[in-house]
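<given_protein>
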Amino acid sequence: MPVHELDHPLFSDRLTILRDHRTTARDFRAAVDEISGFLAYELARILPTRSVWVESPLARAECTVVDREHVVLAPILRAGIGLVPGVQRVFPAAPVLHLGIYRDEASLEPVFYYRRISTDLASRTVVLLDPMLATGGTLCAAAELLQAEDPKRMAALCLLSSRQGVETLSERFPELDIFTAAVDPDLNERGFIVPGLGDAGDRMFATDKL
């Protein structure tokens, strides 16, 4: 499985904001928005391109365009929704599917509570959006569901990943590309990434304050 770990000072800077427990929900969402846009730019590297001819103000020129038309976004509710605006700046016309999955706190197994796939995926690049690739269970369940629709290619955009999660997803779906800001070494007994950044959904939507 190709793993694309972002390598740029700006990525590291925004990830520092996400990790800091003092970061407000507003600033956390802003950093998520920026990093998800960075991840989408990197994703564009694996998409097909084609040559087109355009008329510049001075002459006719052969140019390259990225095949954005066949990208489909699949955020995993709820936290995956936070990545959509940043990714949509790069792929504004991409259809957005919705997959509702939560992780059982006792078994750490993924549980579906909502799934809606209303688009033919046969010729599409499906991009799973999930802030955290921790145990890998949730993304594996989502990828298995979407693979049944026979997409042309699948990728996952994650703010942060664990080494275990990357290995689990790699074993199950070796052709799936992972784009992530960083890969952390450990998981704790609750299945959270360490050092990580906590619960992305809670911090994004300020429900950790309730």
